[in-house]
Structures are given as structure tokens and as C-alpha cells.
Design brief:
heterodimer, A: 149 residues, mainly beta, 8% helix, B: 284 residues
Amino acid sequence: MEHTQGAETVIAAEVEITGTLKTSGSVQFNGTLNGDLIAEGSATIGKGATVKGNLEVDSVAISGTIEGNVTAKDRIQMLASAQVQGDIKAKRLTVEDGVTFVGRSEVNPSGEPVKAATTSSEAAPVSGGVPPKNSELGEGKGSSLFNKK
Amino acid sequence: MANRGTNEWISGLATLRATQRQPRVRRYATGPSIDAESPAADDEASPPADRTGHTRPRPMGIGRTTMPTQNEVVCYGCGFQFVVRGRTTVTQCPKCGARLSMKDETITGGFHEECVTAGKVTLTRSAIVDGGKITANDILLEGIIKSGQVRAHKMLTLAKGAELPEDLLDARSLKIGPEASFDFERTLELHDVEVCGELKARIKATGTVTVRASGHLLGQLMAKHLIVEEGGGLNCALDVQPNRTTWSSTEDATESTVAEPQARPLTEPPIIAPIAQATAGDTP
């Protein structure tokens, strides 16, 4: 992955951070973050990492758990062990088999915006389209998608 | 006589030795073929080396074993799924004993008859099905279906330009061809979905949903597995969980029929809910 400036920050698995993690470079995160992660470069969420907050990055490769929204300027890559509960938005998206993903996706590689009527009609059954950031999703967290008419 | 016999022995031995000196033409899996007539056949072309660097003796005349093709067949009588090896036009269901035709059929022009096969049916762009019945393992639809019944026991492929009413077809898996665009108003309950074009629908998939690089999926998706290639579009509300055991309190009964890919009796109700009519000119 490319990063605009700065060196790569590596957060070990034993580290737990409460608050916002912000960097102008790239970050490889393997610990636990209770807050947002903002990186101007790329981010790598390790297999055992947990992020309870939003991500705003240039590109991200996710192998761990994210409970929040992910916004990438370029690319989101979900590897097989990724678990994402939240909305994602990017130019490009790659999803491997085995990913757990509950939320909304807004990925248009062509760059053309999706019609507003399409998104609003699809968003209605999902209670606004943004699942709670906390782990309040119980059994059948996705069942509300198809129950409402 | 003795001279003649001796000469024959000599000529025979000479021929055998000459044959042994000249290596035969052989092919390696990764290298070019080595012609016995080329000067580099014997010495300069080195035999393949193993991982320790030792060269192995040249293989002499042992070719590659070709395995017969395997085809998964779903019986259109009882829904039993089994494997047929090799190319055949007729087979027998090991469960119900029904004689199954394995022929691939191509339909062009007007069609209002019955076509039942365990092979593949291709409806070309000029095909117009009006009152006919088509049952096959795989169906490729490029034409128009006005009325009748179309049932695919394995895969239904909708190509660009295909037209079909909502309540006339059902399939276990669905594939949207490249540059094709379809918009379904009702919920689609399928096993596998492959999107190479554009698909807007509410989908419940018990298998894998694959969005290819040229594909774009819109709507809502509830599936066990999701694969998105780079370049694929995804504007959906998603619920993808590989460890899913229940779909919802209202869909438990459906899961027992949809989740089992093996047996699907012919008398079961259609899997796909009525589908909105799609035309070639549809744009998102």
C-alpha cells in the first residue's frame, strides 16, 4: 500500500488505547482501540485487533474486528478473518470468503453516484442504515433487513 | 540359412541399440518438447532436476494420465444430486431409477413445447418461449420468455437482452451475465449468486454471493458467504455471516429446503419468488 508521508506506526497486540488515534502516515494496528482511528496513509488491522470506533483512512486491510464505520479514500480490503459491524465507504473494495460483515456498503468503482431513490428505499428496513457502534447487536442482528415491508 | 539368421539377429540388435541411443521425443510439464533429432537432445538439454539439485533420469514414453470429466447431475424426477463421469447422453438416477437425458439443447426461434434434460439448455437471442416448459440442470437465457415454465435445477444464467416475467421461473442458483442489468422487486431465495453485470434485488443466499470485477450489486443481501473482486461495486445493506445457523423466525421452514442442495423434489414450490420483468434497456 502507498502512504503519503510519515513512517509506519506499529501498535502491538498487548496495547490498549482509549481515545482517538491519529497519524499522518501509515499504521499497523494489532491491539485494542476504543475510539476512532484516523490515518492519512494506509492502515492494517491485524487478525487479533479490535477497533470500537470509526476508521478514516486512505486505504485499509482488515483482518480483525471493527465495530464502527470505515471510510477510505481509496481501497478497503477485507481479509478472510475480518469482522465488520458498520458501514463502509470507498472507491474500491475487496472481500475474501469468510468475512463477517453486517452493515451498509457504498462502493462505486465507476465513480458514478448511486441514485438517491435507490439508497433511501433500501435503507428503510435497516433502521437508518447505521448499526450501533457498541456491541449491542444480539441474535439475528441482520434479520431486520427483510422483516419490514 | 545360418547366415541369413545371423544377419537377421545382427540387424535386430543393431536396430535395438540404435533405438536406445536415440532418446524419444518427450515433453516436460514446464519445459518445451525436446526433439530427438535436434543436436541438443542428448547432452545440452539437461534433464529435470529435483529439489536437491540432482538430475533425474529422463522419463521414457510415460505420458500424462487424463481423468474423465465429472459432471454433477440433478435428477429432474426426484431432485437427487449425483456425479456422472465421462461424456454421456443418457444416464440413470441411482435413487429413483429414472432415465435421464444428458443432452445439451439449444433453442432458437419460437418454442412452445417441452424440453426436459439433465444437461444444459441455451435459449439464444432469437428464442421466444411462449407456453413451453423447459427443465434443465443449467439454463442460459439470452432470449425472451413470454409464458410457460423455466426451471433450472442448478444454475440459471441471465445474459444481456434476456426478458422474463416474474412468476415463471425458478432456479437454485443465479448468474447475471456481463453487461446485463436486472431489477427484481421481490426477494430472491437462492443458493449461489454470481454477479457479472448489474443486479438490484433483495437476496437471501444460503451459499456464496460473488461479485465479479465487472459486477455491481445493489439492494439488500443476507448470505453466508460473500466474495467481492476488486473492481466490483457493492451498494447494499448487508448481513453476511459464515457461521449463520438461522435466517429469521419466519424463515426457518424455508431454510430446510433452500439450504439442502442435494435433494429438491420436483413437487416443491418454486424457490425464486416472482421476479419483475426485466428488459435489455433497463438501466440502474
